[in-house]
Design goal:
By secondary structure, the chain is an alpha+beta fold. The protein has 2 domains: about 80 residues, no CATH class; about 50 residues, no CATH class. Helices cover about 15% and strands about 35% of the residues. The chain is built from 2 helices and 10 strands. The protein has a 3-stranded antiparallel β-sheet with strand order 3-4-5, with no helix packed on it. Strands 8-9-10 form a 3-stranded antiparallel β-sheet, with no helix packed on it. It starts with a helix and ends in a 7-residue tail after the last strand.
Length: about 150
């Protein structure tokens, strides 16, 4: 394409941009990798240089995942996956309705949640485990149980 544009006397900056894109396309190769979510084979265009990466979507489970080229070859990783931590723990949180401290039994993993009831005001609320392992509470929008 760049050679054709040069013959047609197209502006040099446009030809240079096309040449750069052609070079990038020459560096890309098609890799077949297993989806880390469902193990289906997924075709991915990936640059040949170490450190390159892509985020394809699996045609089988429709989940997006990471593909990386390292010094040892190409590997995949499910997006946002961290090792699971067993167990639960009691954590004190402030009721989002009345600020009373409530002890909540909640899982130790990111995105774990619980729905405790405040012993002071009677409201049921959401307690969630954040990515940094802290626990936060938010209103549920349900009136207190009587």
């Amino acid at each position: 394409m760049s050679e054709l544009l040069e013959l047609l006397k197209v502006k040099e900056s446009a030809v240079e941009e096309i040449k750069q894109e052609e070079q990038r396309n020459r560096e890309m190769i098609l890799e077949s990798v297993p989806c880390p979510n469902c193990e289906s084979a997924v075709a991915v265009e990936l640059v040949q240089s170490i450190g390159s990466s892509a985020m394809p979507v699996c045609d089988t489970c429709y989940e997006r995942f990471h593909v990386h080229r390292g010094s040892e070859g190409v590997f995949t990783r499910a997006r946002g996956v961290t090792p699971r931590i067993d167990g639960t723990e009691h954590v004190d949180v402030a009721c989002p309705y009345c600020e009373t401290t409530v002890s909540v039994l909640i899982g130790r993993n990111h995105k774990d949640s619980a729905m405790p009831q405040c012993i002071s005001c009677g409201h049921v609320f959401h307690a969630h485990r954040a990515r940094d392992a802290s626990v936060f509470a938010r209103q549920r929008g349900i009136s207190p149980l009587v």
